[in-house]
DNA sequence: CTGTTAGCGCGTTCAC
DNA sequence: GTGAACGCGCTAACAG
């Protein structure tokens, strides 16, 4: 049966070489498709024979052995703390798309304990999405010892690694201020876990913006939910059933805003007409839905992140000319779409 | 500054050996804590000195080099197609918990294209959560050439790899039949993408069970939603607002059932009293909520999966005595909890 | 009992 | 197109 030679052992380059009647060097050149400097240097018939044997044996170069020699693993590691968060999925998607054409495989580390793992395992570049205070030292040390790092953290200085920042505060203020152009009764939809009424940058932007506008706080207008989409839906239903119902909702995440639009629709209130709804984060779902979601957020965040990471992964690990570790600071924009259009004195809802 | 010697290069075992004034063998023995056979053959002072130098240099053994020698990567790969699915998160969580004490790192592969990746990258064991028909050959070849595989797939025979099965059909029937003991007006809550009214094992169980019970199909009772939690919430609200509203809901996933309970509660219908709700999957969330969710599903699925995977990862890669590749077939159970209690002729809702 | 020597196992790559 | 050194950590066999 056309099938042959499988001892259950992984074939090595030497087995291929022997069966093809050539040297290991030749096999290596044929399969990796490169030759020191000069032209092809390997004849077509030989190349064909080698390829055939390799295929028959099911030979695959051993990445570990290759890494030891070249110092490159063709791998990037993504350390993601909240794998269930759509944010993480967007990171993964963007990096995968950018990595595929380069032959680089993204490996995801779901554990928050990247310190231990990165101590032993290495990759061409590593993205870390959260750094606890106690981990800052470890981070610096890793960078010192040759690990290429890209870190997402507000308020961390680059010390041998890149820092990506995305300051939410001002952007969130823009969102609330946008609503203030046409509304006075503005509710806030925010997960109870994220600090809610107490802390949380995104909530604080709401309460501060209202205060500045001279609007008194109204506890009824703070819709806390459990972090799930269904919870946001239910909380919105409650808000819009209030006797003096809000005419606008500021949701601290896009996915909550999406649920809010659905909930409003269900009650018979059209988003962008009867009630304005704005989100935070500028995720793709909001752009695609109907009515499209007004939101604030960085522009092309994930794409830029992925490009930086892969640029770092592919550029030779020059500890010397390290193309200066940089801070990538993302400016936030306001995206005025259908769910919360521009309002003026003529169209305001109060 | 206590700090020293960081050329930005990763320190090797030889650097440590030189600075500590010992041989690389000694360093290796000290840091790996093992010695051929006899007791600890390294004196305390030497060990201390080596450890000190290693620490100062930030030395970490190079996993690639270690792997090439030992054949073990201390890594398992989880190839997960639907990373956003709670099911995947449960797999990750269970494997992480089981792997940590063994010093094994789970690496997640978010891409569906495990064939290409596994061709080059290797791990002590690999879990694959979905096999497309065209990938079956590749699977067999990988197993032949020494990759330790655990595959989740209904209807695939083990050929050098383990197969985990979890036949949903009969279990789902049990769920619907449980409802049939006390109900006639039974709705089905199912994502439109999963085949909905057309295909889908879980939906088919519903329509077949009803047919057998002599209950005519009622299109109004099929609550299709978009796959999101908010969508399930909205669909439930619609179902329970029907003039002849259903007294029971069969949800094809636990998370949809959870959303349904919340939606019912919101309308003033108590789950398990006014309306019975049952899910599918036996996820942990359902067990913890109040009222607790009745459901069907395998018992300790993720725990058993994790244990099998790690057992395969740690047991020496003996292609010969491969402890027979097995089929792990998960029997489904009915978990009668509060949201859909036992009903008899005395307590039935019709 | 303590520590060293030397060679292994990979794929890569320079010099011939 | 080949030979052989190389980079890494591990470990059997040996020397003091």
Describe this structure in words.
The structure is a homodimer of 350-residue chains. By secondary structure, chain A is an alpha/beta fold. The first copy, chain A, has three domains: 4-61, 434 Repressor (Amino-terminal Domain), CATH 1.10.260; 73-167 and 300-332, Response regulator (Rossmann fold), CATH 3.40.50; 169-297 and 335-347, 3-Layer(aba) Sandwich (Rossmann fold). Chain A has helices at residues 13-20, 24-32, 44-57, 63-70, 86-99, 114-120, 136-144, 169-180, 201-212, 229-239, 254-267, 284-288, 301-314; strands spanning 75-79, 105-109, 125-128, 149-152, 162-165, 186-191, 222-225, 248-251, 276-280, 294-298, 327-329, 332-335. In chain A, strands 2-1-3-4-5-11 form a six-stranded parallel sheet, with helices on both faces. In chain A, helix 5 (86-99) links the parallel strand 1 and strand 2. In chain A, helix 10 (229-239) crosses helix 11 (254-267). The longest helix of chain A is centred in the first third of the chain and has 14 residues, at 44-57. The first copy, chain A, is elongated, with a radius of gyration of 27 Å. Mean pLDDT of chain A is 89; it is low at 1-5. At the A-B interface, helix 4, helix 5, strand 2, helix 6 and helix 10 of A face helix 4, helix 5, strand 2, helix 6 and helix 10 of B. The structure holds a DNA duplex (16 and 16 nucleotides).
Strand line-up in the sheet with most strands of chain A:
2-1-3-4-5-11
Which CATH first-tier class of the largest domain in chain A would you pick?
A: Alpha Beta
Can you tell me the overall shape of chain A? elongated
Q: State the share of residues found in helices of chain A, binned by percent.
A: 25-40%
* SSE series of chain A: HHHHEHEHEHEEHEHEHEHEHEHEE
Our count of helices of chain A gives: 13
Number of domains of chain A: 3
């Amino acid at each position: 049966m056309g099938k042959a030679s499988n001892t259950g052992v992984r074939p090595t380059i030497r087995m291929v070489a022997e069966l093809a009647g050539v040297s290991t060097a030749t096999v290596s050149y044929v399969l990796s498709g490169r030759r020191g400097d000069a032209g092809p240097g390997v004849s077509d018939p030989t190349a064909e024979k080698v390829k055939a044997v390799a295929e028959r044996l099911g030979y695959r170069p051993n990445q570990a052995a290759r890494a030891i020699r070249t110092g490159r693993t063709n791998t990037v590691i993504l350390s993601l703390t909240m794998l269930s968060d759509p944010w993480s999925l967007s990171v993964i998607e963007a990096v995968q798309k950018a990595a595929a054409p380069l032959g680089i495989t993204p490996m995801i580390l779901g554990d928050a304990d990247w310190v231990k793992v990165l101590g032993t395992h290495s990759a061409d570049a590593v993205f870390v999405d959260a750094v606890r205070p106690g981990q800052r030292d470890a981070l610096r040390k890793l960078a010192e010892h040759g690990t290429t790092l890209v870190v997402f953290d507000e308020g961390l200085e680059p010390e041998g690694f890149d820092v990506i920042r995305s300051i939410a505060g001002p952007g969130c203020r823009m969102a609330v201020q946008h609503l203030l152009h046409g509304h006075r009764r503005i509710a806030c939809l925010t997960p109870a876990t994220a600090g809610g009424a107490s802390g949380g940058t995104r909530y604080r932007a709401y309460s501060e913006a209202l205060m500045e506008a001279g609007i008194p706080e109204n506890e009824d207008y703070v819709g806390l939910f459990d972090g799930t989409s269904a919870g946001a839906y239910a909380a919105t239903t409650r808000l819009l059933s209030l006797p003096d119902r809000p005419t606008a909702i500021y949701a601290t995440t896009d996915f909550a805003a999406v649920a809010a639009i659905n909930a409003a629709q269900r009650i018979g209130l059209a988003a962008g007409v009867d009630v304005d709804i704005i989100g935070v984060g500028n995720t793709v779902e909001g752009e695609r839905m109907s009515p499209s979601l007004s939101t604030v957020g960085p522009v092309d965040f994930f794409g830029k992140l992925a490009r930086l990471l892969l640029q770092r992964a592919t550029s030779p690990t020059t500890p010397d000319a390290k193309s200066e570790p940089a801070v990538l600071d993302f400016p936030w924009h306001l995206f005025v779409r259908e769910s919360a259009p521009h309002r003026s004195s003529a169209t305001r809802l109060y």
